[in-house]
Amino acid sequence: MSPARKVFLLVALPLTLIFAGVIVALLRQPTPDPKDPNINSSADSWEKRVANAFKPSECPLLPKPKLDASYYQGPLIDAHFHPPSLPDSALGSELEAPDDQTLLGVNITYDEIACTFRNDGTSGKVFAFFPVYPNIYKPALEVVKRAVDQYPDVFVPFIMPPDNDGSPTGYPTVNSDTLQKMLKVYPNLFKGYGEIGLYERQGGAKELPPDSARLLEIYPVAREHNLVVMFHLGEGQAASYEKILQANRDIKFIWHGDQLINCTECTQDLTVIDGILSRNPNVYYGIDELYGDVFLMQAEVGKKKFLEHFKDYDPLLKKDVETWKSFIERHPDQVLWDTDRGVLTWSMDIEVGRALTNYSRAFIAELDPDVQEKFAYKNAEKLLPSN
Ligand SMILES: [Zn+2]
């Protein structure tokens, strides 16, 4: 053995090995926490929860609903749907859906959801606000990816990432860093961000104004990923909202909710909403409170009462025409039809869907013929990427 080789074996090689060992130790990840759904060690069960969400089921081919000849007959896009969340309880715990509420893979699956939209009398396309909670973001994103891959014509995916892991006091949105991390898992998957509820929760989270520091950091992320931004505004947030609409003309916004109205008992006063739409071409307003000025999407209403509500269209139409017709006609390019369905189990029933769309078609027929298609689907289509 040459002296050089001897030096290498005795000194350099052990030193190299020690150095490599230190590097490996430094690079090693901490021991995975088996309860963390984002770690592979629990993949089987999380995989099972995701698989349950996509359990195949038959979709009966129902005859198309018969429409009255006087109703609007064209396409209809629902611009407000809430897909159910995956259960986020600890693995191994019993999975039970809260009363009347949808829980993915437990009391509803994507096949069933898609079946409702195929048969409810709409065109079957919805703006879907997929919940992505930070504590289960990887399986939650996998669900979105699979839902969109499996039903590309149904779901226009928005990311809805509350920062509360189920706690009522957290922010309604994660911060910009976490949002970036989520958006990078499946690049270009999402078309929108929201719905983000910016209002104060009773006994819970404080309001989050559109010009708050947290949201100011989010708009550049929305711009970078080409996302439409969807808010449910809080009371008195009009000025803050307009500031943001003006500062971000290249971002498209949708909003809904009557929280801009300053009195609780009065009927819809649309003056504030009118003003915002007139001054800001980059904003759209979604109407889901048709049906005679009654808020029907509540757990205590239930399927039976809901269907009974539509027994006589005339008094309902009279009210809705009074409240909404001229408003929609004043902003023909900025108002969207939607339903805010998905949270309540009975809201995903095909019969309920048909009752909703049938009445909405009767209402749309009351609008100026030049505005009908815009409200029903064309304004929603304008928000979709052209590719
Ligand atoms: Zn909503």
From TrEMBL:
Record-given protein name: Amidohydrolase-related domain-containing protein
Single GO MF annotation: hydrolase activity
Classification via Gene3D superfamilies: Metal-dependent hydrolases
SUPFAM superfamilies found in the cross-reference section: Metallo-dependent hydrolases (SSF51556)
Lineage: superkingdom: Bacteria
Amidohydrolase-related domain boundaries: 188-385
Lineage: Bacteria, Candidatus Berkelbacteria
InterPro entries, alphabetized: Amidohydro-rel, Metal_Hydrolase
Pfam families, sorted: Amidohydro_2 (PF04909)
Native source organism of the sequence: Candidatus Berkelbacteria bacterium RIFCSPLOWO2_01_FULL_50_28
